[in-house]
Amino acid sequence: ALILPFILMGVNFVYVAIHRSLNASFYPMSFIRFILCFLVLVIPTTLMGGTLPVISKALTNRINKLGWTVGMLYSVNTFGAVVGCFFAGFMLIRTLGMQTTTFIACGINILIAIIIIFVLARKVSAINNDDLEITKTSETPQESLDLPKNAGKIALWVFGISGFCALAYEVLWTRILVMFLGSTAYAFATMLSSFLLGIAIGSIIFAKVSDKRKELFITLGIIQIIIALSAILLIPVYGKLYDIGLRFQDKGWLTFVLSKYALSFLVMIVPTIFMGATFPLVSKIYTNSLGELGKKIGNVYSINTVGSIFGSLLSGFVFIPLIGVQRSIMLMAFFNILAGIIVIVSDMNYWRSKDNSRAFGMRLAYISIAIVAFILASIITDTGQPLTKYTAVFKGPGEQNKLLFYKEGIDTSVTVVEDPEGVRRVFVDTNQAAEDSRWDLPSHNLLAHIPLLLHPNPKNSLVIGFGMGVTSWAVSRYGVAVDAVEISPGIVEANKFFTKINHNVLSDPLVKLNIDDGRSYTLTTNQKYDMISTGIIHPLVSTNSAGFYTKDFYELCKKRLTDTGIMCQWVPLHRLPEDQYKMIIRTFKASFPHTSLWYKYTPDFIILIGTPNELTIDLKKFIEKTQQPAIKADLASVNMDDPYSILDSFMMDEKQIDAYVGEGPIHTDNHPLMEFFGPQPTVTTLKNLDGMSKFRTTILPYLTNIGTSAEFNQLKDRLQQYFDGTQYLIMGQLYYITGDFDTSMKRLLAGSYINPNDANIKWMINHVQRLMGISEETLKARIDTNEKDADAHEKLGTLYQNQGKLDKAIEEFKKAIAINPNSLIAHSSLAYIYEGQNKIPEAIEEFKELIRIQPNVAQIHVGLGLLYDKQGMFKEAIASMRKGKELDPKSPVASINIGIIYQKQGMLKESIAEFEELTKSQPNTAAFHGFLGNLYREVGNYDKAETSLRKAQQLDPSIGLEPNFMASLAMIYLGKGNYVEAEKEINKAINLDPNNNNYKAILEEIKSKKK
At which of 654, 669, 704 does a domain end? Predict the structure, then answer.
């Protein structure tokens, strides 16, 4: 165990070499993995298996106490396994990590060895030597027990069958229980320790019985029958677990976990107790004398273990895929019944040879009852219903779901359902993996688009988690080859229900599907990729899924990326406590220092992008890509075909990410913290989104190849419009999450007013309206009932507005105002529509109405000022702006616009005064210093101009990389008479933007002045 990490390194090397040389399919590679695991574990597990025979030999000194001694030792050993499983699964690995937990176990082994070798060995040896002298001629079990001639051999083989069935049951029960307990590390620790606890209890109970009862052989047969019948009769019980567990869901984390443990233990208690009973019974039947005790116990233990190995293998790899979980349980029960009948028939023959008709008749009755009970139990419990019918998939909101597909595979069960609205969802066990709704599609679609739009020239990609096939389809739109990896054949088979959205992508020659574990494939492939995308796998769904969020996995992916390769990771906002959410981002950034965070699409997930160098985006190439017909059409399916909306989904750069996540733990294979979530809330989207929204920043500094200074200013204004609109979108999403749809709608409408071009905001408005029960039909019905329903007119107007039916929208808003002249929604919506139609006077009148209704809202005065500015009414514009500034002196918006209006009017002194005030109130805003520098330059104050520009560059170094900044410096140096520096700066600007005629004119002026 101590050298296991080094052994695993060697095994990894061998496994990779075998995989690359054979390039075999899933099943052969699974067999190879089994062989390699066996070779790694054979020595320690053989020694573990050897402890029981050795201890039994050392401590058993009377043959008539053999059952008690061996059964007690087996029980104590299993109780120890329960404790080890519980503490490792619930405490040690979480707090100390895998390696330290292993070292603790090793330390305990070494301590035990020291105690035995130096303290107990001589005492036990002396005691046993004395007792052996007394018991050498003692009776054997055959002399005191009523046993057939070959009872020992039959019992041994029955115990092998029992071991086969026992481990098969454990695999099968685990597959059932994950439907109700989940598949986290806690769930597996719960299930395994519950299983072992039942065996330990059964062994200690029957250890006493085996020494007192003479008819052990018939007891062994009856026990096999009881195991079989109890296993079958448990099947309908599992269908009740969901409803029982639901009662404990809101009782606190500890109560919830303990209730799961109790449920797991109670449903397995009967069969596992009787499984535990078999070991002392078989040991007593099979062992002839103390002299052969060690060998005999070793034989018993080993054949049971061999049976267990084959039981677990065949149940998972053969029985479940062929006949399903429930019928596999029935098959195991049949084997148990068969084993029990074999024992009873052998015992019948024994009693018939002794002419004991009563004993013979009783055994015949046992067989008859067993057969009839088995047949009846099988008929009653075989409902033919898939397991998911009894889970959350078809409970509560899922009651109306229509089952389209169900497949039980090697490691998971896959279900596809369709709800009454026609939305199709795919579940892995009971965890929703994906759905074909607009809500979920961006999380699959944009996992491809964002990284491929950022990559300069992608050729190939790796998509881990094929899912519905949407990500692979999106990748293929770029003409990029796709290696898609999916561990579940059931998911691939279910793909036929999602061809509407994946366009039968598996028929695309660019797409190659690999049935394999994502980590295994990434480890073994020698291919390098331009893009690796991982998702959509929630880290808390199972222990396996958490492995795709470790630093070890990210480092593995890093090795599989080309020099220009981009890593893309989906991260959920839901069901992920904030500390663990931040830990995922922190872990990703530890492997990919140049990480950016992208968010906007739905309040459900983010995308992390890891680039090899600091992020830079060639704007013109970016836009060109988005406008390619195949790419544009796919982006339009999720309302993201606007390139500026995609750019606006950039939320944090690497600096902001560091500020947001702070210092903290990293998720690793050795310390898999994600697998051990503690008593924290499961409703986490609100806190995660609210927390990170405060760190949102613009993408502007990372854009290159923008164009002329006029184009730069135009881009800056456009991105600011998107940024501001999205800020309201996020506020609307936050209120949406709380269930406050009314406030959410107000924020979303404000965002749509600021940025009417954002289709994503419009979709969110429609989504909230639908949840509020707002549709054209329902609203018209309300108006038919009550023509004076202003709220219905407002909502119908908003509906038409979002649908682009502006004339109808205006009509409805006017009706709302006629009923309620103080309707903020109607007046603000009309103002927005009129402005969009360039009917500025009408928009101004609506803003005046808004001021009449709410005279002390700064934003309304500023908005009116912007409209006056558009209309050329500069005096009125400044007056409105000043009123807005008076109402909200902390907001820079009014001062910025006042300064810009003064500049446009040539009133540079007044403009400078505004921006000087801004740089004093907000000294760390680079844009203010930059604007002020250009104003100083225009009035000929070149020293102050250079100082201000250098201050802006100091605050935001990316500004210094812009050609406009270089051109401004050139003009300042020109004004100072420093022609050498002026020429140097303008040449740098021309190199970045060679088609800019303004830059060329400045260069000519510098050259003429130099002459």
Answer: 704
- My answer on whether 358 and 500 are in the same domain is no
Return mean pLDDT, the chain.
Answer: 87
- Asked if residue 139 has pLDDT above 50, the reply is no
Name every residue whose Cβ is closer than 8 Å to that of residue 860 and which is 6 or more positions away in sequence: 847, 850, 851, 854, 884
Q: CA-to-CA distance for 800 and 796, rounded, in angstroms? A: 6
Beta strands in 19-121 (DSSP E): none
User: Is position 479 within any domain?
Assistant: yes
pLDDT, position 137: 45
Domains in the chain, number: 3
> What stretch of H or E contains 303?
helix 293-314
Query: How far, in Å, CA of 805 to CA of 399, rounded?
Result: 37
Rounded distance, CA 399 to CA 121, Å?
Answer: 64
In a domain, 924, yes or no: no
Q: Which of 181-195, 618-632, 822-836, 849-863 has the weakest average pLDDT?
A: 181-195
Distance between CA atoms of residues 306 and 310, nearest Å: 7
277, 358: one domain: yes
- Supply the pLDDT for residue 778: 85
In whole angstroms, what is the distance from residue 614 CA to residue 595 CA?
8
142 falls in which pLDDT band (50, 70, 90)? very low
Give the per-residue SS3 of 217-272: HHHHHHHHHHHHHHHHHCHHHHCCHHHHHHCCCCCCHHHHHHHHHHHHHHHHHHHH
pLDDT at 320 (0 to 100): 93
Tokens 């220092």: give the residue: 593
Q: Which contacts qualify for 45-52: CB closer than 8 Å, 24 or more apart?
A: 49/298, 49/301, 49/302, 49/305, 50/298, 51/77, 52/77, 52/297, 52/301
b/e map 694-721, b = 16+ CB within 10 Å: ebbbbbbbbbbebebbeebeebbeebbb
d(CA 231, CA 218): 20
Each residue of 479-529: pLDDT tens digit? 999 999 998 899 999 999 999 999 999 999 999 999 999 999 999 999 999
b/e sequence 943-953, b meaning 16+ C-beta within 10 Å = ebbbebbebbb
Has residue 92 been placed in a domain?
Answer: yes
Query: Among 428, 514, 431, 440, which Cα is nearest to 470's?
Result: 440
Domain containing 342 equals 4-106+140-381
Instruction: State the first-to-last Cα distance of the chain, in angstroms, to the nearest integer.
Output: 83
Domain boundary, last residue among 651, 677, 704: 704
The pTM for the full model equals 0.80
